[in-house]
Design goal:
The chain is α+β, with helices and mostly antiparallel strands. Helices cover about 50% and strands about 10% of the residues.
Length: about 220
């Protein structure tokens, strides 16, 4: 199975120290080699993920799932033109953008697998909170499963509300879950693990643990 090559990490480390167009153009061949490595890795993962999550369509290729390395700097104070990582996005039901799915980041000393739904739009957030309130036992069964907790250490608390969300009472037994604005988990991998022969198997195991969460979130907004 495909692994991430040391040359890919070397390219990203050098790009981080030389994030400018002149350097990138002079090292375009190194970028293309690294990109091909990540595409092959994404193809491998996509094939395995489709066996876990039937809503992942068969039409996308690994290449289409690898995100662009070029940054959109139009509205950012950071004007560096390139990302210092490769991102791979597998979207449930083939949706792009704001929808439950899976994400893999490849970056020196900052590799991880993630999934769920990051910052859902207002109508989706309302629907998810309603589903958690109605079916809290099902949701808790997913996020409190021993394998899930051991692997992910719980849902991300990013941007969590400090007060009770509109439409709910402060004595709601699921208040802390209802305060969430994202429903995501992640698990880190070392560079050595990414280059090791077990990485696809290990990531697929992680994706299989994420699947019940993404499935719950998809059903909530459909």
């Amino acid at each position: 199975m495909t692994t991430i090559n040391k040359q890919t990490f070397d390219f990203l480390a050098n790009l981080d120290s030389n994030n400018n167009r002149d350097w990138f153009l002079a090292n375009k061949a190194s970028y293309e080699t690294a990109h091909e490595n990540v595409v092959a890795f994404a193809d491998n993962l996509l094939t395995q993920l489709q066996k876990i999550d039937a809503s992942i369509p068969s039409t996308p290729t690994g290449k289409k799932c690898v995100m662009r390395i070029y940054r959109d700097v139009r509205f950012s104070k950071d004007k560096t033109p390139y990302k210092n990582n490769f991102g791979i996005s597998f979207a449930a039901n083939g949706k792009n953008g704001n929808y439950p799915g899976y994400y893999i980041q490849i970056q020196p000393n900052n590799n991880f697998i993630a999934g769920g739904y990051w910052m859902p739009e207002a109508t989706h957030l309302k629907a998810i909170r309603q589903e958690i309130d109605y079916n809290s036992s099902q949701f808790k069964e997913i996020i409190e499963a021993s394998d899930f907790v051991k692997y992910f250490e719980g849902l991300s608390q990013e941007d969590k509300l400090k007060t009770c969300p509109k439409g709910y009472n402060t004595d709601n037994e699921n208040l802390e879950l209802l305060k969430l604005k994202s429903f995501t988990v992640f698990h880190r991998f070392t560079d050595e693990e990414m280059m090791g022969g077990k990485i696809i198997t290990d990531m697929v195991n992680g994706l299989s643990l994420i699947y019940p969460l993404t499935n719950f979130l998809k059903n909530a907004i459909q």
